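Handout, page 2. Input:
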Amino acid sequence: MRTVSLARDGSSRRDHDPARGNDGVAADLARGSSVIGVSQEPQRFLPSTLIAVADAQVHVRAPDGKVLRSLLRKCASGRIPDALPDVSMLGFHEIVACFRPGAAARDVVDRLAAVAKRKAVDRRAGLVNSDSDLSGFSA
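Output:
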């Protein structure tokens, strides 16, 4: 059995539209292929046919403190601070961008905290309207 995967993040306004790709999804499913769609906002970016006929949906949440601590152990050097910032409003790419090659855990945590603080200020100022504006994760 063949598996087809569609990854859409909204970076292409023309191609990442729910009205596009429905014929391909229908044809792939009719041939017996599995079709997997990946998006931080499936309803907004994936083909509407895939959303309508999906057998299952999996939601991946932002990493909690336990996951963040594990990432820091694997990807950063030095002592991990006891207090970790709340990264629940950060997108996947924002979190990844805070991890730099050879960085100390303290530096990564400081970057995460700074980005989270800016995002919170932006949200209070109305520059980020809702959770649907956050990229990388869905609720």
